[in-house]
Design a protein that fits this description.
- The structure is a single chain.
- The chain contains ten helices and eight strands.
- With 244 residues, the chain is an alpha/beta fold.
- The strands form two sheets. It has a six-stranded parallel sheet with strand order 2-1-3-4-7-8, sandwiched between helices.
- The N and C termini lie close together (8 Å).
- The longest helix is centred in the N-terminal third of the chain and has 14 residues.
- Helix 1 packs across helix 10 and helix 2 crosses helix 3.
- The protein has a single domain, classed as Rossmann fold (3-Layer(aba) Sandwich), CATH 3.40.50.
- Pfam families: Abhydrolase_6 (PF12697).
């Protein structure tokens, strides 16, 4: 049986993994969702200095504090950035890294690099206008749906997402990834692709082509960008298959 550390994406916390974690435990695995600094129940711990390095330290500290070994580290969406940094630092504690609707970052890359300059500028303006200069509020469902698939989220789940979301410390988006980013050569590498990401991988987008080649293993999950909410049991099935 595997030991999963489940890292949520932007605006989310450990709460978002509850359904998937329960399903993994029912299959005999250890499933440990975590929240990052400044988010969910750790919102009060965040501040203007909370950045990508903070979240990398959160993940490595969580693994070390619980003295975990043979870890399957799972990151959703934004968490691909700190998970990449943590994977390069965990050494022999790490057995497998799984990117859920996400991909590993390269050294020198930031979240803002993934969007057009005008979109990045709009986020900066929002942070200055309504985020006290350091917090990025979660966009409306309508805005989210322009860039990420909401398929599978019913009205109640969308309301839950809105109600429990926490503004994202914006320096986690602006800071570039530094330090070791490559896990050990024997670490298993997995990508779980949902609707839009599946289409990108099938289209052979050059910057993502490596995810279709060994040592990467790919699993497709036909749902929207938040599978832990829209298809929690199905996501657990995929994660279980990835470690079997």
């Amino acid at each position: 049986m595997a030991t999963f550390v489940l890292v949520p994406g932007a605006w989310l916390g450990a709460w978002s993994w509850e359904g998937t974690a329960l399903a993994l435990r029912e299959r005999g695995h250890t499933a440990l969702p975590m929240s990052l600094t400044g988010l969910a129940e750790r919102a009060s711990e965040g501040g203007p200095g909370t950045d990508l390095d903070t979240h990398i330290a959160d993940i490595t500290g969580f693994v070390e504090r619980h003295d975990l070994h043979d870890v399957t580290l799972v990151g959703h969406s934004y968490a691909g950035a700190p998970v990449t940094g943590a994977a390069g630092r965990l050494g022999e504690r790490l057995k497998r890294v799984v990117y859920v609707d996400s991909a590993p970052f390269t050294a020198g890359m930031s979240m803002l690099d993934l969007m057009p300059p005008e979109a990045a500028d709009e986020l900066r303006q929002q942070v200055d206008a309504v985020g006290d200069g350091w917090r990025l509020p979660m966009p409306s469902s309508e805005v989210l749906g322009l860039s990420s698939s909401l398929r599978g989220l019913d009205e109640a789940q969308r309301d839950l997402l809105r109600a429990r979301a926490t503004p994202q410390p914006f320096n986690t988006y602006t800071q570039r990834l530094t330090g070791p980013t490559e896990p050990g050569p024997d670490v298993d590498r997995v990508v779980v692709a949902c609707d839009d990401f599946t289409a990108l991988l099938d289209a052979g987008v050059p910057m993502l082509a490596f995810l279709n080649q060994p040592p990467w293993r790919r699993f497709d999950l036909p749902t929207g960008h938040w599978p832990m909410l829209s298809a929690p049991t199905e996501l657990a099935d995929v994660l279980d298959a990835a470690v079997s």
